Amino acid sequence: xxxxxxxxxxxxxxxxxxxxxxxxxxxxxxxxxxxxxxxxxxxxxxxxxxxxxxxxxxxxxxxxxxxxxxxxxxxx
Length: 76
Hints:
Layout: E1 3-4, E2 16-20, H1 23-32, E3 49-52, E4 59-62, E5 69-71
Antiparallel strand pairs: 1-2, 2-3, 3-4, 4-5
């Protein structure tokens, strides 16, 4: 993807590099963003999300809106 804002404490400051989700991350992302009305059930599209690549960061967020997202569970 490219350099975008990551609001996590591990990444505050400069822009960070994000990449597309892997299959296992896509399933977990569905659970992370299910609280957003526009992302429930059939409206969820994994291709609309990307993940921060900073070591220790588990942030996933929409490519077009960094405010829609959250952290993947431990182990990702």
